[in-house]
Write a structure and sequence with these properties.
about 200 residues; 9 strands; seven-stranded mixed beta sheet; alpha/beta
């Protein structure tokens, strides 16, 4: 998982400067095809808040980041925003949401942490809720400044999901280069569907 890289204010400020001008309009348009306007969203790893600003006109959004500097700096210019310090693995909150969203954030978790995060996210989703996450595509991992970058293929991600979700979309797309990224949309399995699955397995 991310170590202490973003505990340092200068690293946070450098990232915010680097991220200026980047936007996820295509991803937000895709999300709008799967999530009703006015739904509640928890964004994980909001960083400088670029995606938060795109989501806010359409959804009731709560932004979060593990690193307090990102949250505090965002609140300076957006004092009314609903934002909190939150670890993407443990997700220690009592609130529930219609959608949990992240953009190239969960790739900083180890595979074991990702599995743990998915289990916790399942608990925080309302019935019929969805996960919307993106990852860099590849098969390797690397560290930069103590920060883990874990790359995934579609097959690798499907293996990490665990029980409780139906895959709505798991596909590659291009951000800087063709097929350099993956978008994942998962829907919380309804209790009836889950019971049907369990009943089928009990008969086998």
């Amino acid at each position: 998982m991310l170590m202490d890289y973003y505990d340092k204010l200068e690293n946070v400020e450098a990232y915010i400067e680097m991220a200026k001008g980047t936007e996820a309009t295509m991803l937000i348009d895709l999300l709008k095809e799967h999530l009703t306007e006015g739904s509640s969203i928890l964004e994980l790893g909001m960083g400088p808040g670029n995606d938060f600003r795109l989501l806010a006109p359409f959804y009731e959004i709560t932004g979060s980041d593990k690193y307090r500097h990102f949250v505090d700096l965002f609140k300076i210019d957006n004092p009314e925003a609903d934002v909190l310090v939150l670890d993407a693995v443990t997700l220690e909150t009592e609130a529930t949401y219609d959608c949990i969203y992240s953009n190239k954030v969960l790739m900083h978790l180890t595979k074991e942490e990702l599995q743990q995060s998915f289990k916790k996210q399942l608990q925080l989703l309302n019935e019929g809720g969805i996960l919307f996450h993106t990852f860099w595509r590849g098969e390797d991992k690397e560290y930069h400044g103590g920060m883990l970058n874990q790359y995934y293929t579609e097959k690798m991600l499907a293996y990490e999901i665990g029980e409780g979700f139906d895959i709505v979309l798991l596909a590659s797309y291009g951000e800087f280069e063709e097929d350099d990224s993956i978008v994942m949309i998962l829907k919380k399995t309804s209790p009836q569907t889950l019971e049907n699955h369990n009943r089928w397995f009990r008969r086998r």
